[in-house]
Specification:
Number of strands: 0
Strand content: under 5%
Structural class: mainly alpha
CATH topology of one domain: Arf Nucleotide-binding Site Opener, domain 2
CATH architecture of one domain: Orthogonal Bundle
Helix content: 55-70%
CATH class of one domain: Mainly Alpha
Shape: globular
CATH superfamily of one domain: Arf Nucleotide-binding Site Opener,domain 2
Oligomer: single chain
Number of helices: 18
Length: 402
């Protein structure tokens, strides 16, 4: 009867939690995220701890608008600036930039960070300052990724990369006379602008040259709050290469319809007609080939989505990890009561259940990630069996079948 009472109590608490969250998200939509968090703190759902607030933003990232998260993370004030700095730090600290150069880290930060960059310069400054701090922590001492002597160099270079990205790709939307008058920044100009950026020291031109080449060939496709798609440097129309592929395709189509280049137009049309005739006579075989090609395209698209989902899951788990843990046997390595362990598991098991559920939403192919989630499930199931927790055991067993 005692155990039944515990299950009923947990179900009631779960229902209350969902109701509280529903009200909070309604407040967020009608008023602001700050008001919603104040409501959750008043309901004792959260504490005002910067770490807990940043973890909440990551856990419920999919239920919040990216621009709302960006606006909240870039908040600040004269009297509580340090508080906002800690919220930003704990949020960004969940992201790993290890082994990346500044351009790669900034690209990952702006496209997969879960927020949309605000439009105000002061807010952008705060987010880039935190990026510089965390990037420095991850790569300081690695001369290949971070050959700098000071953390501020990362911040300055991040600003330079954003300006370069805008300069190289903004012209995609310019037309007519304006496009002809506009001149893109050259590599030599970019290198000249960064001369002496690291405490008046000149760094390797190869490092900055690699950054320029990467930005030139592939645009950082991030969104800025308050800026329409039409004014984002051709992001939606041109894609990462500034629209050169689509223009190139149109040029190729023009060559075909106009007779092609180099006097090969007649041959091109003849080849096309022969191919069409061959396709009609082998329609069954072509249908099968097309089916296989579609499967391959679907597989590649799924892989890209999985990689993005797994990166977010890794960052979420990293943000929730407060310390390195060791395992102890109750009654052998520790005098901790099994009743106390049960209370801890009862209070936290649904977090592990939610992590496994998020992973099971799609078919994952990354072996290391699958093994990590299986470890979580194995330990959670073992704990529920050891502690004779029927409801929790059933929940984790259901996930095993998935």
């Amino acid at each position: 009867m005692k155990r039944l009472g515990s299950v009923v109590q947990k179900q009631a608490e779960h229902k209350q939690t969902e109701e509280t969250l529903t009200v909070a998200f309604e407040i967020c939509e009608s008023k602001s995220l700050k008001k919603a968090l104040q409501y959750l703190i008043a309901c004792n759902f959260l504490t005002p701890s910067p770490r807990e607030i940043s973890n909440f933003l990551r856990i419920y990232q999919t239920r919040l608008d990216a621009s709302v998260i960006g606006d909240y993370l870039s908040e600040g004030g004269l009297n509580d600036e340090e508080y906002w700095n800690l919220i930003r730090y704990h949020y960004v600290r969940a992201i790993s930039f290890e082994g990346m150069n500044v351009e790669q880290g900034l690209r990952h930060y702006l496209t997969n960070g879960g927020f949309r960059l605000p439009g105000e310069a002061q807010r952008i400054d705060r987010l880039l300052t935190t990026f510089g701090q965390v990037f420095w922590e991850d790569n300081s001492g690695n001369d290949e990724c971070c050959p700098f002597t000071h953390q501020d160099t990362v911040y300055l270079l991040a600003f330079a990369v954003i300006m370069l990205n805008t300069d190289l790709h903004k012209a995609n939307n310019d037309t007519g006379r304006r496009a002809r008058q506009r001149k893109k920044m050259t590599k030599s100009e970019f290198l000249s602008n960064l001369r002496g950026v690291d405490n008046a020291a000149d760094l390797s031109k190869d490092y900055f040259g690699t950054i320029y080449d990467s930005i030139e060939s592939r645009q950082i496709e991030f969104k800025v709050a308050g800026v329409s798609d039409e004014n984002r440097g051709g992001e939606t129309r041109g894609g990462g290469n500034g629209g050169r592929d689509s223009l190139g395709s149109e040029a190729e189509r023009g060559d075909l319809t106009a007779g092609g280049g180099g006097g090969g137009g007649g041959d091109s049309f003849a080849s096309i007609r022969q191919s069409q005739s061959f396709a009609r006579s082998n329609s069954a075989g072509n249908a099968k080939i097309e089916e296989e090609l579609q499967k391959l395209r679907d597989f590649r698209r799924t892989n890209r989505n999985l990689v993005k989902q797994m990166k977010q899951a890794e960052e979420l788990l990293r943000g929730m990890a407060l310390s390195q843990h060791t395992y102890n046997v109750v009654g052998v390595n520790t005098l901790m009561s099994s009743d106390l362990v049960r209370c801890v598991v009862e209070a936290t098991w649904f977090h592990f259940h939610a992590v496994v559920n998020a992973f099971c939403e799609g078919a994952h192919t990354d072996v290391s990630s699958v093994l990590s989630v299986l470890d979580i499930l194995r330990h959670a199931l073992s704990s529920s069996i050891f502690l004779n927790m029927t409801m929790e055991r059933t929940a984790f067993l259901t996930q095993v079948s998935e």
